[in-house]
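COMPLEX REQUEST
Ligand: fe (ii) ion
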Amino acid sequence: MTDKKYLLTSKQMAAFAADGYLRFDALVPDAINRATLKEYDEKPWPHGGGYVGTPLSKQWVGSPGIGAMLKLPQVAGIIDSLVGPEPRYDHHQVHIVPPKSPHGQIWHADAIIDTRLEHFDLQFFYFAHDTPREMGGTMILPGSHLRRVNETDIARYQNFLGQLPSTCKAGTIVFVHHGIWHCAQPNLTDNTRYMFKLRLNPTVKQVRLWNTDDINDSDIPRILGRNHGWYGWGGEDRLEVVQRIKFWRALTGDDKFDTDYWLGRLENDPQRVLQPA
Ligand SMILES: O=C(O)CCC(=O)C(=O)O
Ligand SMILES: [Fe+2]
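STATUS: Structure written out below.
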C-alpha cells in the first residue's frame, strides 16, 4: 500500500483530467538517471521490458536504472493514483532522435483502440538527461486527450496554439493520458536524444485511486474548465469541458457532478406532453 503522501491530490487529478498530462521536473535522482543512460547502451538490454499484459511488478527487476526509477515512492505513488495497484505492462520503447536530425515526427496519438472514457492507459515519458529546446523534447498538446483521433489523423497540422515542448532537466517525467496528441522534435545538437516511454494498463476500476482529502476543493471546477486556446473560434472549448465533466464523473464515481450546468443541459430530456386546454 502506497503511503498517502506519495499519492496525487484531487487538484492534481483534476489537472490531469483537464490537461491530459502531469509533469514532474527532475523527479528522478541523478544516480538513477546515469544508471538508466548506461542501461540504454547495454545490448541486449539486460533487464528490459516484458510481454504485453504481464504485471509491471515483474519487469526490470534488479535494474539500477529503469527498475530503480519505477520503485521510487514518488513514481509508484503517481502510477498508483492513475492506474491503481498491479498495472499491466503494455509496451515500452527507448525513443532515440539521432544527433543533427532536422526533422520532427508528425503529430499523432498512440494506439487509440479503446475509446471508452472511463478507462485510460497511462503513458510516461522519462527524460534521463537534460533536454534543451535544440534537442526537442516531446511536443505535447495540452487538453487534446479527450478529442480522440485515429493515430495520424492530425498529421497535417504543424503547430498548435498552446503546444508544449517537454524541454526539461534530467530526471523529468511527463505522465500522459494515452489520448494525448504528441510528436518527437528535431534534435539539432551533436548528442543523441533518448526518451523512455512506457505504457501501462489498469487492472482495477480507475475510481478515487488518489488521495481524495481535497475532493471538494473549490478550485476543481475552474481547473476542469481550462481553455488551452487551440480549439478554434468561439466557445468550442465547451466540447472539451463536457468531456472532462464526464471523465471526472467516472474518476470520482459521482454521477451528478457538473460545472455550470454543462452536462445538465444535455441530460435535460423533457418528457411531459402538454395536454390541450
Ligand atoms: O520520441 C519522442 O519524443 C516521441 C516518440 C513517439 O511518440 C512515438 O514514436 O510514438
Ligand atoms: Fe507516439
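REMARKS: The chain has two domains: 4-201, 216-267. The longest strand covers residues 88-97.
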